[in-house]
Amino acid sequence: MDRPYSEAADVSARIDLEFGSLANSLVLLLEAARSELEHDREAAKTSLAVASSMLQLEIERRSGATGSRTGGLAGWQIARVRCFIDRNLHRTIHASDLSAVARLSTAHFSRSFKQAFGEPPHAYIVRRRLEEACHLMLTSSSALSEIALTVGFSDQAHLSKLFRDAFGQSPGNWRRERDSMCRR
Asked: Are the C-beta atoms of 31 and 13 separated by less than 8 Å?
């Protein structure tokens, strides 16, 4: 009898930990959106969109709505992978690193990641790097070359190319526009 109770307690503890992690992430995203609202509406919208999608995923997971799909990531895997990516943006992140965090084979992880996040791991990582670069451009006076390396791009040209593809302008122009808005 001790064993079933122990397993139930372990499951309960994991659920509490997952919920605590989710709640903490949501609080941080909402606080960031609140502080960004007056200075950078796009960054605020991004924070709100991420918070909304995290909450929607958790609601679907808990309601069993995603149960009809096969191969998705569990809530704990999503939380661990997100955390790993955010803590390691400054370095090269391989699919094998992420699959180890999620405790899945690389091929299975890649399919599951795309199903859970709506984009492949590489696209998600690039998007997170661009979001972090935007944050650093707004909150620091660091050179773009330094920001590029800090968020894991090989150099400023790499950041500039991907930034232009995503936002339609260079990071320098984007930063100057935001700086001039803040001075008004």
From this structure: no
Q: Quote the Cα angle for 49-54-60, to 5°.
A: 120
Q: If we measure between CA atoms, which residue out of 49, 56, 20, 53 comes closest to residue 33? A: 49
pTM score of the predicted model: 0.63
What band does 37 get if pLDDT is binned at 50, 70 and 90?
Answer: confident
**Domain segments of the chain: what residues?**
1-68
Q: What is the pLDDT of residues 123-181, one digit of tens each?
A: 999 999 999 999 899 889 999 999 999 999 999 999 999 999 988 999 999 988 887 77
Supply the angle between the helices 2-36 and 75-87 in degrees, to the nearest 10: 50
Neighbour-count burial for 101-128, b at 16+ CB within 10 Å, e otherwise: bbebebeebbbbbbebbeeebeebbbbb
Cβ atoms < 10 Å from Cβ of 91: 9
- Please state, in angstroms and as integers, the Cα–Cα distance from residue 34 to each residue in 25, 46, 137, following that order: 14, 12, 18
